[in-house]
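Replying to the earlier thread about multi-chain prediction with a worked example.

Input:
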Amino acid sequence: MSSTPVIYSTAHLAHEGLIELQDGVVMPCYEMPQRAIAIRQALKAEGTYRFATPLEHGLDPILAVHDVELVRLLEHVWADAVEAGVTHGTRALIPDTFRTAAYVHGQASSQLPDSGPARLGAFCFDTATPIVAGTYEAARAAVDVALTTAERVLAGDRLAYGICRPPGHHAGRSLFGGYCFFNNAAIVAQRLVEGGASRVAILDLDYHHGNGTQQIFWERGDVLYVSLHADPRRAYPYFSGHAAEKGSGAGAGTTANFPLAARTDVEGYAAALDDALRRIADFAPDAPLVLSLGFDTFERDPIGDLALRTADYARLARMVGGLGLPVVALQEGGYAIDAIGANAVSFLNALRDALPATAGKT
Amino acid sequence: MSSTPVIYSTAHLAHEGLIELQDGVVMPCYEMPQRAIAIRQALKAEGTYRFATPLEHGLDPILAVHDVELVRLLEHVWADAVEAGVTHGTRALIPDTFRTAAYVHGQASSQLPDSGPARLGAFCFDTATPIVAGTYEAARAAVDVALTTAERVLAGDRLAYGICRPPGHHAGRSLFGGYCFFNNAAIVAQRLVEGGASRVAILDLDYHHGNGTQQIFWERGDVLYVSLHADPRRAYPYFSGHAAEKGSGAGAGTTANFPLAARTDVEGYAAALDDALRRIADFAPDAPLVLSLGFDTFERDPIGDLALRTADYARLARMVGGLGLPVVALQEGGYAIDAIGANAVSFLNALRDALPATAGKT
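Result:
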């Protein structure tokens, strides 16, 4: 058994010093550099993972799923704010006014502020996704991590894992939020389609609904999006992820949501995952599985309320491996810093062991 | 010359202890009880204003312009939050996740969280509009103040003034924000229509665009909305208020926006007001003028950037009086506490003097 590739970039370290606002309270951002550092250390200690840095892929893969206005905004907003003197030193940019659906309803204007923090409120949907000097480069690097991870699988590895930070699944076409800026998993799925695949499946095991991924492929019949997540009636991001959402147009039936009750444990989770995997098997992907992998389903996650334990991730990973598809695993959420490394090892070791040798090309 | 009625309720005093979040920084809310207290004291000292408390008008006038879901949310969200233990004592409720247009674009779900702060993010559009225990009663009382003010004018006073707090013009059909919960001016305008008027004009002189008022009457030909305000390309609420926005359907041409450059002084302001008043005169209202009166156009306003001085308000008021319409003046913004009383006296004294005696019925 060869070692499993892990793609990691240090660019994420500059996306730090972050705060977020929850219900009007300022607090350190749960999405912090220590998350990726802890995962990397745990996999290093395991000894059976080989680390590599990402290749640069440029903007084209990003522009294949995101509007250019979003990309340009994220590229320039920090420098613009510094120039305009509105950053108050080094603190993070967080919008305070949002272009909501209820605001624009029945009003014709789509004109936006040209630049600056006010423009953020047309693209961002929460107060938890701060922008600092290093954010854009980190988000770009996370995309490169994801694409490089996919290339390892296309080159023959049965499993490759990208420690994407910032994560991606809340980022939509012209939308960022939920700690996410560019949708790493969606960019990989789109790249697989452009590489010739006719049916690509994305499995999202993060605690939160991947509203961005769902949106990007909502009307696409060639990309199946299947997500297990906390019921949006109680959990972030609140405004999508219900079971009734199934896609539309050419994408009717290629979105599948499995909302979960609070305190769902491995039995309940495995039952939903079984249904989800059947959906993927029925779709018959002709490309590697894109896995949005969050560990905020962990029983002690500070912003989750599910009840998975470290050993449970191995069981769930074996189920995923049972699909027989090679896997492009991309890190999403997970905020229990002291456990995230062990959880990643539990999942990835078991997934690697479960993947049939025939799945890869080597 | 008889004294001018001023309607005031102490219910606003319980809408206090407020914070707001600007660009990720927590600060005391600019919209504070001292605003209304200072205005009342200045008018009391003037000696030519007679004070009265509002009559209760119930929910029907509110439901004539707002969706019932908004009303119910504002009525219950604080108690729900207390019950759910999410208020952290007495601090204000401020949403952290917003149902933005870019989020819901291309996704079918309109299901919302049943209750609690998460539901706020579908109705509120900023982090500056905190809810505390006394907010709903204060907002209800502000509506009663506005309606009672209108009734004084309908009963024959040429001018009546309502010290509405919280203000109203940012509140839309299913929308609150910008320190506003119910749209006091829109509720009055609608009441005038229901009372038999066929053409009602609202003049909005607040520093900020009254996006809520515009939205409510966007497709209405019987209510003209005319607003002078800071250009939304630089100023809150950012996503409406451009000159190109003119209404649609039956309301095509009955919205008129006059965005103003930073540091606009009384000369520039008066030039725009002259155009605005001509629009109103051409519309030929058959009801009192509804005046959304903000003093955040003042040169030292902490959140404005225009350059009006206290004496300037008298000049502008004389221009408004030149319309020859009786005036229902309703307080909107204005955050320079030390000057807001003098500014109100300057404006109201001059407006009263300018109104022709024939405008009223007595």
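Chain A has a mean pLDDT of 94.

Feel free to reuse this layout for your own posts.
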